Write the structure tokens for this entry.
Amino acid sequence: MAQTYSVDHCIEQVCQKGCSLVWSDIEALEAGRLIPEAEGLNEDQRAAVLVELKSVMSVYEGTCSVS
């Protein structure tokens, strides 16, 4: 349960940063770089964060405006 909380908490923190910064964080995670919000997460948890962020942001289709 704590593992899910950590992943969920990270996602919430990243999403609060705003659209363009979320895309930057997605790029960083894809490149294997660590973002501050994910510092306490292991590799599997960071992968889960990346998948969820991509899912959340898919509505924006790579931009910060809804089509």
Q: What stands out?
A: DSSP finds three helices and no strands in the chain. The radius of gyration is 11 Å.
